[in-house]
């Protein structure tokens, strides 16, 4: 049985998302649906990307908003990533997303990014995508690495 992988148009995704950054992850599913109602999150659909994001939470005692350090990683399904990251009452925020064109390998690109940013990695056992960078610096460094890769 041959399954064709359908990738959404990276250029269209880029043009749609870029003006919205930073964007609360819970809004991504509706945006993706608006782009094309024929796409669904199934085995044969993907919007492979590299992302920079962080969690935000309001301290229930003080009412003060706090942000996590940025996470840098890859995803095939933005809405699934959002569900996984929005745990414990926090909001997952996508600060930057690079939608990987079909001819590029998003796993190799993620490896390149992690290797080049190794000195900034917090090296926590269960948080390998967490970096000791400001959100702006994380975005700038990821963009630079992506531009130099292609």
Order of helices and strands: EHEHEEEEHEHH
Number of strands: 7
Return Rg in Å: 16 Å
What are the low-pLDDT stretches, counting only 5+ consecutive residues below 50?
none
Mean pLDDT: 83
> How many domains, as an integer?
1
Structural class: alpha+beta
Supply the number of helical segments: 5
- Main β-sheet: number of strands, strand sense, barrel status? 5 strands, antiparallel
Q: Give the terminus-to-terminus CA distance.
A: 34 Å
- β-strand amount: 15-25%
Shape: globular
Into which percent range does the helicity of residues fall?
A: 25-40%
What are its keywords?
single chain; 150 residues; alpha+beta; two-stranded parallel sheet; 5 helices; 7 strands; 33% helix; 22% strand; globular
Provide an overview of this structure.
The structure is a single chain. With 150 residues, the protein is α+β, with helices and mostly antiparallel strands. It has one domain (6-149). The chain is built from five helices and seven strands, in the order βαβαββββαβαα. Strands 2, 4, 5, 6 and 7 form a five-stranded antiparallel beta sheet that branches. Strands 1-3 form a two-stranded parallel sheet. β4 and β5 form a beta hairpin. The mean pLDDT is 83.
